[in-house]
Amino acid sequence: MTNTILSVDQLTQVVSIGQSDQTTTLLKNISFTVQKGELVSIVGPSGSGKSTLLYCISGITRPTGGTVAIAGINPYQLKSNQLAAFRRQTIGFIFQQYNLIQSLPVFENVVLQQRLSHQQPQRAEIKQLLTKMNFAGQIDGPVATLSGGEQQKVAIARTILTDCDVLFADEPTGALDSASKAIIFTYFKGRL
Ligand SMILES: Nc1ncnc2c1ncn2[C@@H]1O[C@H](COP(=O)(O)OP(=O)(O)OP(=O)(O)O)[C@@H](O)[C@H]1O
Ligand SMILES: [Mg+2]
Predict the structure, then answer these.
(1) Residue 14 has pLDDT above 60, yes or no
(2) Cα–ligand 2 centroid distance for 54 (angstroms)
(3) What is the pLDDT of residues 48-96, one digit of tens each?
(4) CA 46 to centroid of ligand 2, rounded, Å
(5) From ligand 1's centre to the CA of 110, what distance in Å?
(6) Residue span of the signal peptide, if any (predicted)?
C-alpha cells in the first residue's frame, strides 16, 4: 500500500492578464510528493505563488498543465458533485482570507463543515476547542466584528473539526499572536 497522500507532477499554471492575449506563468513544472503524516511548508515572498499553488494542489483551481493526485484521485477528473463530496471527506483548507460567512454567528461558522456532512455538532466540544485556542469572542456573536486573529481562529477551528486526510493551510497564523501560534501548530502536527 502506498504511503503517498499527495502527488504533484509537472504542475503549471498560466493565466491570461487583462483584455489582451497576454499570459503570465504563475507556476512552472512543479513536482513533489507528500507522504501520510508529513508536515510540509511552502515558503516564498509575497506574490511568489504560494496561494495559487495551494489552490491548484487542493482541487480548488484547475491547473493549465500537469497532474495532481490526492489520496490517489485526480480531483480535476471528478464531476462537480463528486468533487464536492471528495473535498468534504478528504480535504481541509484554511484560507488566507478566512472565508467565513458573515451572516452566520461564530458557532455556525465553526460547525459549517459538520452540517454539510450531516454530522451533529457538539456544542460543548466546540466551546472547549475555542477556549483551548484562547478565542476571546462570543460563540453566538457575529463574525463580522471579530478581529483578524479571532476570525482566523474560527476558520482554523472549523477545519480542525473535520476528519480530513490532507490539511492545506494558507498562512494560517499570519494574524495570530505568537502564544496562539505555538498551540495551533502543535495541534496541527498531531492531526496531520
Ligand atoms: N487569476 C490570476 N490572474 C492573474 N494573476 C494572478 C491570478 N492569480 C494570482 N495572480 C498573480 O500571481 C501572483 C501570485 O499570487 P499568489 O496569491 O499565489 O501569491 P502568494 O505567494 O500567495 O502571495 P501572499 O504571500 O501575498 O499571499 C501575484 O502576482 C498575483 O497577482
Ligand atoms: Mg497568499
Answers:
(1) yes
(2) 9
(3) 898 899 999 999 999 999 999 999 999 999 999 999 999 888 888 888 8
(4) 7
(5) 27
(6) none
Pocket probe mutation, ligand 1, options 17, 51, 64, max atoms within 8 Å of Cβ? 51
User: Per-residue pLDDT for 178 more than 70?
Assistant: no
Q: Secondary structure of the chain in the HEC alphabet? A: CCCEEEEEEEEEEEEECCCCCCEEEEEEEEEEEEECCCCCCCCCCCCCCHHHHHHHHCCCCCCCEEEEEECCECHHHCCHHHHHHHHHHHEEEECCCCCCCCCCEHHHHHCHHHHHCCCCCCHHHHHHHHHHCCCCCCCCCECCCCCHHHHHHHHHHHHHCCCCCEEEECCCCCCCCHHHHHHHHHHHHHHC
**Structural domains of the chain ordered from first start:** 1-77 (3.40.50.300), 91-192 (3.40.50.300)
**Which protein residue has the closest C-alpha to ligand 1 atom 26?**
46
